[in-house]
Amino acid sequence: MLPRVTRGTYPKIRVLFVIDQLSEIGGAERVLASMINGLPKNRFDCSLVTFKSGPPVEELKLTCPVHVFPLRRTYDWNALQASWQLRRLIRALDIQIVHTFFETADLWAGPIARLAGCKVLISSRRDMGILRSWKHRLGYRFVSRLFDEVHAVSNQVRTYCIQNDRIDPRKIITLYNGVRIEKAKSLPAPDLRAEMAERSSGALICTVANLRRIKGIDVFLRAAAIVSRRISEPLLFAIAGEDLDPGYTAELHGLVRELGLSGCVIFLGKRSDIRAVLSASSVFCLLSRSEGLSNALLEAMAMRLGCVATSVGGNGELIQDGRNGYLVAAEDAEAAAARIVTLLENRDLCGRMGREARLTVETTFTTECMIDKLVSCYESLLNRAANHRLTS
After folding, report:
1. Is 239 in contact with 265 (CB distance < 8 Å)?
2. SS3 39
3. Which of 16, 25, 11, 20 is nearest to 74 (CA)?
């Protein structure tokens, strides 16, 4: 049963977020949870629709109702029923703002929300089109015009959307991810040595990413092999992330054996204590082949770590090379290894870069910064919609 709301009697701004899935939790899902949980409760009433959910959603600790409309295809009888449910929900809750995340939410739910009469429609663009098929690329060129505003997670993503989706630059803004800075303090380090069964007792170099090829963990392993040859002390390389591609994961384990890294590499799997893992680390490394704006990199910077990252997507908007971290080209394991070695051999430099990284996050990339800008966008768009109705 859908809730009943009497129109005109609900004082809060009513926002419906729509996201493709909550069965696998990545950076976008965590940012969405931060938005929902961070919007002022006295001014906003949030709801969430997803087309696929599962047990992982519990770790997001969402403070709003979650509606699951199962959807496998967007063109069958089940999709027609789901579209009717979504339309009814928008009208029953008297939703004012619909905010979509990812392809199905954008291309399928967006037009339904517009037809259902929502006052404001917003799309959040999180990446450089890495998951798009040709149908998605074509669809975005037509559907993007329906949105009142598009929120790009970085300036690089904004440029991509302007060029590829042909969005009017005046309709697309950059809304950076944010992390909760008050929690980014020294935390008890997990006993990774015990997990390693005493394989290593030296400095810890970590990467945090779900195991997918786009995250470049194979490049991280090749860099690890080079670093191990150049540093005489024992080292530990930790990979924290969920296995989302069993074929790629098997390839990674084979690469560990091929490179002779079995004694110094640990796959930590999915962790609920990522900040504790970061706290135990000396250097953070992210060698992704593509990024929108990396939450993992933000978290590492907030923990004052010396960071090495590829200059892809929004990474260059977080790191100023040589000041608060190092940037290297994608696929360049040699350059990444050289930067890791520099940080390991010069702890004063590493500490100074870590402090600069923390300052960068405190200045621009906190949850509070993100929420303040989001609130401003919502209120501005609703005022614009109200003024348009008055003058039309």
Report:
1. yes
2. coil
3. 20
pLDDT single digits (tens) 371-387: 999 999 999 999 998 88
SS (H, E, C) 338-367: HHHHHHHHCHHHHHHHHHHHHHHHHHHCEH
Query: What pTM was estimated for this model as a whole?
Result: 0.90
Q: Which domain holds residue 269?
A: 182-364
CA distance linking residue 345 with residue 325, whole number of Å: 15
Half-sphere exposure of 219 (CA within 13 A, CB side): 25
Q: Which residues contact 15 (CB under 8 A, 6 or more apart)?
A: 39, 44, 45, 46, 47, 95, 96, 97, 98, 99, 378
133 and 199 inside one domain = no
Same domain, 147 and 228: no
Q: How many domains does the chain have?
A: 2
Q: Which residue has the tokens 């989001």?
A: 374
Q: What is the pLDDT of residues 268-313, one digit of tens each?
A: 999 888 888 998 899 999 999 999 999 999 999 999 999 999 999 9
Q: What is the pLDDT of residue 283?
A: 97
Q: Note whether 221 and 283 are same-domain residues.
A: yes
pLDDT at 32: 96
